[in-house]
Design a protein that fits this description.
Layout (H helix, E strand, L loop, with lengths): L1 E6 L4 H12 L4 E7 L4 H11 L3 E4 L2 H13 L6 E4 H9 L6 E4 L7 H9 L4 E3 L2 H18 L3 E3 L2 H10 L7 E8 L17 H4 L9 H9 L1 H14 L6 E5 L5 E7 L4 E5 L5 H9 L29 H12 L2 H18 L7 H11 L9 H19 L1
The protein binds magnesium ion (MG).
The site of magnesium ion has 4 residues, from helix 7.
């Protein structure tokens, strides 16, 4: 029985993880849950799963949850709050495996703490790997702690890598759907509205990641994530646009063989893979091969999607540039959604911030968070 700590339990990955626990009650149970501000969902989950510990964003929300649990006659749930609460959930002695699914750098300290506590991590939070991948992977290697990617592309790569030695890998190919503007002529990019950018063709996701898919910055973050997770240089990672989103990624080996991973576009599959690794439990998430009509692969267009170029540059430099890429994008996406800047203002803002970022490699999580705050300030200043 694997007892899970689920960080980001009320978000979409957290809820999908709980649906896997529900389907495999003999394999998985819930040790702790870290939520944010969604009190109703956190309460419902605490009642349903009876974890040892639940964390909420603030002291006030934690007090409200405690009161509601008391009223309902639920005892034995330790309610905590804030970053310290999330860290406590991640490092709970009763937890055997940590699902890191808090969006943004908010989940960074808890993910780092989980690795230092020797807990295997299922990683759905790509910002953690982008901002602090050098620190997290170094700690994981030193302590021999597995990090299992839940991001669908990296999960696919992880699966493909199992068939060969690292020295036999030539190129990691990340597939990209290309987003809603894959075929839009460049001269129409200036008029893209938030409503148009929020319509993703194949995946239903949160707002920032949907905009990041439209600019392809999401793929850029995934390039950096792949470099860190699989310990390869940015020249060994390439992007191919694959509109069907059926092949989740591929690995090309030195002999010319290319292995691809195909499955339904359902996050429960990579979650199950990460939770059960190295086993493969039978599931109902089957893929209908007979319904598959075609698989297309195209070169990405770096002119219409400058975020890809910026990400490769940041991946090459590492450290502070990766932090700045992520931070500047988050600020710029918010400004785009609030109609303060046009769609192409997103890459322009990122480029400005990257240009003013000194080359540095933060050695601690505190330094990473300081560099992140500083990059956000420069992004806000660039927007004025
Ligand atoms: Mg992905």
């Amino acid at each position: 029985m694997k007892r899970l700590a689920i960080l980001g339990c009320t978000g979409s990955i957290g809820q999908s993880t709980l649906s896997i626990v529900e389907q495999f009650p003999d394999r998985f149970s819930v040790a702790s849950l870290a939520a944010g501000r969604n009190l109703d969902e956190a309460y419902a989950q605490a009642v349903r799963w009876r974890p040892r510990m639940v964390s909420l964003a603030t002291e006030e929300l934690a007090a409200q949850l405690s009161a509601r649990l008391r009223q309902a006659g639920v005892s034995g749930v330790n309610v905590v709050h804030g970053t310290a609460g999330t860290v406590a959930c991640a490092t709970l002695p009763e937890a055997d495996f940590v699902v890191s699914a808090i969006v943004g750098v908010a989940g960074l300290e808890a993910t780092h703490a989980a690795i230092l506590a020797g807990k295997p991590v299922g990683l759905a939070n790509k910002e953690c790997m982008v901002a602090a991948g050098e620190i997290l992977t170094a700690a994981a290697r030193r302590l021999n702690v597995p990090i299992l990617p839940i991001d669908s592309e990296h999960n696919a790569v992880h699966q493909c890598l199992r068939v060969g030695a690292r020295s036999e890998v030539k190129t990691i190919w990340l597939t990209a759907s290309g987003g809603p503007f894959r075929q839009l002529p460049l001269d129409q990019f200036a008029g893209i509205t938030p409503e148009q950018a929020l319509k993703h063709p194949t995946w239903v996701m949160g707002r920032r990641i949907t905009i990041d898919s439209a600019t392809m910055l999401n793929k850029g973050l995934e390039i950096i994530e792949a470099c860190r997770l699989f310990d390869v240089g940015s020249r060994q990672v390439r992007v191919t646009v694959h509109p069907q989103s059926t092949v989740h990624s591929l690995v090309e080996f030195v002999d010319g063989s290319i292995l691809a991973q195909i499955s339904v576009t359902d996050m429960r599959l990579p979650i199950l893979y990460a939770l059960a690794y190295p086993e493969r439990p039978a599931s109902t998430l089957t893929f209908d091969l007979a319904a598959l009509r075609r698989l297309e692969f195209e070169q990405p267009d770096f002119e219409r999607f400058p975020c890809l170029r910026l990400a490769f540059e940041a991946a090459e430099k590492g450290g502070a540039h990766c932090i700045a890429l992520n931070a500047a994008d988050e600020v710029a996406v918010e400004a785009f959604l609030n109609r303060r800047i046009p769609f192409m203002g997103i890459p322009r803002t990122i480029e400005k911030v990257l240009a003013s970022t000194p080359e540095a490699h933060p050695a601690t999580i505190a330094e990473v968070l300081a560099a992140d705050r500083e990059a956000r300030q420069r992004a806000s200043a660039a927007l004025e």
